[in-house]
Amino acid sequence: MAAASTSWYSRQTTLGEPRQSSTGQKNGLQPLVADLDAETDNIMESPLLKLPPELVQQILSYLSAQELARVAVTCRSFADHVDNELLWLNLINSYLPEPIHDPGLFDSFRSLYIAHHPCWFIPKHKIWFSDTEHTGNLILARYDHRRGVIEAYRVIAERRSHQFQIWDWNPDVIIQSFDPKVILWLDDPVLLLKNHREGRPRYLHGEIRMPMPLEIQHVFNAFSLCSKYLPPNLDASKQWPPPIIPSTHRVYRDVELQLPDWERNPRQLEEVSEYGFRIRRWAHFRLGMPIFTAGRNETLSTFATLDPEVYTPTQRKPYQGIWVGDYSAHGCEFLLILQRDRCDGPVSVAEPIDGEEVTLKGSLEAIKLTGDPNVPRGEISFAADDLGPDGLVRIADEGLFQGARIVRSRGHVAGLGFRDDTFISSQLILLSTDCVAHYWETMGHISYYRRLDVDTLLQT
C-alpha cells in the first residue's frame, strides 16, 4: 500500500504536471518505492494519526491540493485519509460561487479537481477584462457542472428603443432614455477548458488549444497561464490591470512578444498567477493542423480580474461597482466606478450603523473596462473630485431629476487613437445608487449609466 501511495504521489504531486526529472532520477524512483515498501512496518506511527479520524480530516481540510498530495506519500494511513472525497469536494467548492454536490461527469471529486487544476481560480474570480486595443473585453467565467467545463463568455449590451426626454432646467440639452439589454454572448465563448480524454492538458508547457465553434470558420484559440512575477523595471503600459485600477496583483502583457516563452510563461505551479491569463486568437486557412505559429498579427489578449473590494458597494461607497453606459455612436460600454477617500482629509473606514444617514465624501472615478477608438479601455471616462459639500452644484428640483444630487465633474474626450485627450467641464447627476446621469456641458448632451448585476448574468 505504501508503494501505491508513493506511485500516486509521483504522478499527482503537481496534480497532473510532469515533473522536471532527469533520466537518472526517474530510474531511481523504483528503488525508492521498494525501500519505502520494505520499511513500512518499521515506520513509527505519527502522533497525529492517534487522533480520532474526524479530527484528522478536519486538520487536512486546511491543506491545499499540493499539500494533500505530499501528505499522502508519507504513509498508508495518511493516503487513506487523503482519499476522502469530502476533502476534494470542499476544495472544489472553495472556488465556486454556487457549490456542487456530486462529481457530475467525473468518477470522483478528486479526478474532477485534477482535471481542471490549476485553473479553478478562473471561475472563482468570475469577472475578467482584457487589454485588447482599443475596445477591451469584459467576460464572466463559471464552471458548467452539466458539461464539466470551465467557460467564459463576453458581456454585451445593446440599446433598446429609447425616448427623447425634456429637461425643464435646460430644454436645449439632448437626453435619450437608456434601458439596455445586457446578456452573455453564448454563441461565441471566449474561454472553454475541457477535460481532455487523452489526459490533463499540460498548462505549464505553454499554450493549450481550445476547440471552439469558430473553428468551422478557420478561427482558432489558445489559452495560456501568466506568471505572477513581473520583469524588473517594467513600464506601467506593460502591466495589466493598468495602474489606475487598484490591485495587489498584476501580470505582464507582452504585446510585442519580446520575452522568450520560458520567461513569459510560468514553469512551476508556484509561479502561476491566479489573477491573469492569456488568450490567443488567429485565423488559419492553410491545409494541415493549426500549430501556434500564427505570427505577430494574431490577437493576443491578457485578461485580469478585479479585487472584489473595488466593485462591491458599501454604505460609505454606494456607487462602487460595474456599470454600463450609453456612448452614443460607440454603443454601450462597461465601466468600473470607484469611490476614493480624499487624501487631504481624515479617512474613515468604519461603516455607519443601521439607520444612520450616510454623508457622501471623497471622489468618484469611472474607469473604462471596455472602450472605443477615442477613449480606450483602462482610461478614465469621467470623474468627480468631491461628492461632498465642496463639489455640490445643487439639489435638482425639476421633474426629470427631482431630488437628485448634482456635483461638479470632468468628462474625458479625445480624438481617434486617443490623441489630444483632455478633460472638459461636466456635471454628475446622482439619481440613485443604480443609475447616474452625466451632463456634458459643452456638448449639450446627457448620458445615462446603470449598474450591472453580475450574479444574475452568471445564472444565464
UniProtKB/TrEMBL annotation:
Pfam families: Cyclin_D1_bind, F-box-like. Residues 45-91 form the F-box domain. Gene3D superfamilies: 1.20.1280.50. Pathway: Protein modification; protein ubiquitination. GO terms for biological process: protein ubiquitination. Keywords: Ubl conjugation pathway. This is F-box domain-containing protein. Residues 1-28 are annotated as: Disordered.
